[in-house]
């Protein structure tokens, strides 16, 4: 309360701003639950209790033996997750997602098989249970949300647990579940549209149908006397088998948005939906900062090509590139790509003030991203895309002014200590440095695209030299220390940048003006192929790479 009155008094005196910057709300309780060991133990205990309920319900022989087997499989699953997926194992929310989805599939499988074996419903026969069991539900969900390794993990262990739900190991159920799960994962290696989920469902349905034919779940079929077969029943059973995969994929498609929201996961499907250029912020940028908008589109192309080359998330890089400079909307005229031809506003400012305005676009970008409720990964890349790098142009300008002041001070016989030193920290962005591969790729693409605009008569050699120089500078400045890019991947990224920029900045022939020239007139020697003429900016404008 006292801070509120103190701030109000400063505002009245003109010593504070009325603007309150938005900040991300971080719950300490949720963070503790996310990484606390007791949270994981609780999840595993609940899952074990769920297995006990599924195994001990219904009439089956030796349920205790089956439950012990299920617990041993659980111990194996926990160990496997800890060894192969340490990042997922460290987060309670990921463990809850994985084992929660598996438990849901097991419960539905148990329910359907019990109903089919009970004889309560005439249309649900024992052999029908093997046709309508949702074998691919957990593998599909986890493959799309967390990646193929998690999908294969779910397919393997959910098959083992399913096979012990009814006493003796059910070999046809085990094999069908395994192959269906692996088929689902192999068909969803890169899902960018929901229609691909349906295609995966068709593939799973065909796999279930073939396995059902193999294990005699469809029929009986008399291959020697086809006319003796009940083709109506066979057609119905085939439709159930193929429809199983399609219905499962449809349910997964409807469930994904809910799970993405609950567990803060963004799939490629959602990233593709987020790449719509009609977002209000991007529409504002086209009007208020068209130069920044065009710059962002080029950065998106560079980042996407580089991410695809090293196996990173290319769609994420494209979407985040669209929004990485959105903070320039607050003062667009102070950035070179949006400057007019009449004046340079930085001519009237000290280098420190110019640097503050340039660096503020990161904080303003985070503020706008929070206001428009953008994805958390976009906010992170907006904050990280300059890392803790130096606003080099204005830092050099400040050093030059400092040297001029010292030279003038000697003439005026001023003391050295009366001339304030230039601190490099005052010209550094506040960071943090890029934390992921995608963040580092967007950061490098931003720097490379900006610097390439200052090249005169760009050639492949000049572009290659510029790209290598900028990447080496980022490495020596330790801007890439916190991301997991390797030197080999940086080499591939540099090559993709060079190729893409070379294609974009290629030369064009200067076409002759249309004029009536008499036949036989001497050829105008001034008409010759030449490279693009650079658009002229105010003479004192900072280079495009200054921001």
Task: Note the main attributes of this structure.
547 residues; mainly alpha; Hypothetical protein af1432
Strand content is under 5%
Uncertain segments are 525-536
- Major pleated sheet: none
Q: Give, in order, the helices and strands.
A: HHHHHHHHHHHHHHHHHHHHHH
State the end-to-end CA separation.
38 Å
Reported CATH architecture of the largest domain: Orthogonal Bundle
Which structural class best describes the helix and strand composition?
A: mainly alpha
Could you outline the blueprint of secondary structure elements for this entry?
Layout: H1 2-12, H2 28-35, H3 37-56, H4 63-84, H5 86-89, H6 92-118, H7 126-132, H8 137-146, H9 148-163, H10 171-186, H11 194-214, H12 231-263, H13 268-274, H14 280-288, H15 290-310, H16 314-323, H17 351-371, H18 376-384, H19 392-411, H20 437-452, H21 460-476, H22 487-504
Write a structural description.
The chain is elongated, with a radius of gyration of 32 Å. The relative contact order is 0.06. It is 63% helix and 0% strand. It folds into two domains: 29-269, Orthogonal Bundle (Arp2/3 complex 21 kDa subunit ARPC3), CATH 1.10.1760.20; 275-511 and 534-546, Hypothetical protein af1432, CATH 1.10.3210. It is an all-alpha fold and 547 residues long.
Give a quick summary of the entry.
The chain has helices spanning 2-12, 28-35, 37-56, 63-84, 86-89, 92-118, 126-132, 137-146, 148-163, 171-186, 194-214, 231-263, 268-274, 280-288, 290-310, 314-323, 351-371, 376-384, 392-411, 437-452, 460-476, 487-504.
